[in-house]
Design brief:
The chain has 417 residues and is an alpha/beta fold. The protein has 2 domains: 2-41 and 202-270 and 363-416, FAD/NAD(P)-binding domain (3-Layer(bba) Sandwich); 51-96 and 132-196 and 272-359, 2-Layer Sandwich (D-Amino Acid Oxidase, Chain A, domain 2), CATH 3.30.9. It has 11 helices and 20 strands. The chain has helices at 10-20, 60-69, 83-94, 98-126, 144-152, 154-159, 169-175, 200-213, 258-263, 327-340, 385-401, and strands spanning 2-6, 25-29, 46-47, 75-77, 137-141, 165-168, 188-192, 196-197, 217-219, 224-229, 235-239, 244-245, 249-252, 272-282, 293-296, 301-306, 309-318, 351-359, 366-369, 375-379. Strand 11 (235-239) and strand 12 (244-245) form a beta hairpin. Helix 1 (10-20) packs parallel to helix 11 and helix 4 packs across helix 11. The longest helix has 29 residues, at 98-126. The chain starts with a strand and ends in a 16-residue tail after the last helix.
């Protein structure tokens, strides 16, 4: 079969990888000149299989007024009268309860654990080189209340298959000596040895090379005008140069850009952009930068070593399709990083980046067929795109092939988004 994948980010590439194993003729289309140049380019770099709890949690709504008033808050909203934005916001607030959060976490863990197994298989079979590091992850807590709450959740997490340990301040520093300057600020931490890190852009470039060797065709610098129904139950792709592309199957893996394209086909997907920011800092003092991946719970900032660089990422701005770097947000991120790892490197030399995470209100991706027999969706992985990529790609490939997926497909259907 001929399969056209729209999007050369990590989701589109992993989807192509598993579909190519089935022997199909595959093309990947992207408006950029290369693979992995959008949201996949400089994400948080954490492969965070055990930490998949959605942003919509039971305590979020009470924090919204404070976040709205604080320009440096980790989550920032822009008021919008767009009906789609209003609907998304209402669905998000509806999902902010313990019952929905627990259910979403259980479902996402099935996909993340599958992804962990699959990426390990891929690393071993393909000899990938993307600064992969089985570093473990430590979530730092500055307040006694938040640390005690995290400790109380350990039994729940263990029931779901997550191996985690509570560490006191001294144990945190023993595990990660670079945290010593924070000794008087850390109450404790939760350590998960199974978490990993890697450079998502390099991962995408590795996959591109593998796919090209398999005969996959890349159509770069091709901008989509619209998806159009041809009068039957099939869809084709109209490009800006008026060229029309057809295929036996078309997979939409365009992240936030999927929403507008699908709207023309009267397919409504609850995917909105959450802009995140990152710094990539060349490490100058090895012992002053962490080897373990770190999440600063109160500050909502993550740190991950990728080779000789430190990736620092955080914040979530619900401000539409605006990809511009907000220097105020970057400055706040630099300030946070300097306070935690002041001697890791020269922050004036850090690469600055902003990207749009394709988020759904519940925090679950949409991996599903549509009412058009040749059109499929693999979108909405949010901040977990790298973590969920291999599982998402395999699930979609199984659905296209008519196979029974390892993870129940209904969990990630459009109706359950």
């Amino acid at each position: 079969m001929e399969i056209l994948i729209l999007g050369a980010g990590v989701i589109g590439l992993t989807t192509a990888y598993y579909l190519s194993e089935q022997g199909h003729k595959i093309s990947i289309l992207d408006k950029n000149p290369d693979a992995g140049l959008e949201t996949s380019y400089a994400n948080g770099a954490q492969l965070s299989y055990s930490y998949v709890a959605p942003l919509a949690g039971p305590g979020v709504i009470g924090k919204v007024p404070k976040w709205l008033l604080n320009p440096d808050s980790p989550l920032r909203f822009r008021p919008s009268l767009d009906p789609g934005d209003i609907c998304w916001n209402l669905q998000f607030m509806k999902a902010c309860n313990a019952s929905q959060s627990d259910q979403t976490t259980r479902e996402l863990l099935q996909l993340s654990f599958l992804s962990r197994d699959l990426i390990h298989e891929m690393i071993n079979s393909e000899k990938l080189d993307f600064d992969f590091q089985p570093s473990g992850k430590m979530v730092l807590h500055r307040s006694t209340a938040s640390f005690n709450t995290a400790v109380q959740l350990l039994d729940f997490q263990r029931q779901l298959g997550c191996e985690q340990f509570a560490l006191n301040t001294e144990e945190c520093i023993e595990k990660e000596p670079s945290l010593a300057p924070l000794k008087n600020q850390i109450t404790g931490g939760i350590y998960t040895p199974s978490e990993e890190a890697g450079d998502c852009y390099k991962f995408c470039q590795n996959l591109k090379t593998i796919l090209q060797a398999r005969g996959v065709q890349f159509l770069f610098n091709q901008e989509i005008s619209q998806l159009q129904s041809n009068g039957s139950s099939n869809v084709s792709v109209l490009l800006k140069d008026r060229q029309v592309l057809s295929a036996d199957h078309i997979v939409v893996a365009l992240g936030c850009e999927s929403t507008a394209l699908l709207k023309a086909l009267h397919i409504t997907v609850p995917v909105r952009p959450l802009k995140g920011y990152s710094l990539t800092l060349p490490i100058e003092n090895d012992g002053k930068a962490p080897n373990t991946s770190i999440t600063d719970f109160e500050r909502k900032v993550v740190y991950a070593r990728i080779g000789n660089r430190l990736r620092i990422a955080g914040m979530a701005d619900l401000v539409g399709m605006n990809k511009k770097i907000d220097q105020q947000r970057i400055n706040a991120l630099i300030q946070e990083a300097r306070a935690v790892f002041p001697e890791a490197g020269n922050y004036a030399q850090a690469e600055q980046w902003a990207g749009l995470r394709p988020a759904t209100p519940k925090g679950k991706p949409v991996i599903d067929a549509t009412r058009y027999k040749n059109l499929w969706l693999n979108i909405g992985q949010g901040a977990l795109g790298f973590t969920l990529a291999t599982g998402s790609g395999k699930l979609l490939a199984d659905l296209v092939a008519g196979k029974e997926p390892t993870v129940p497909a209904r969990l990630f259907s459009l109706n359950n988004a």
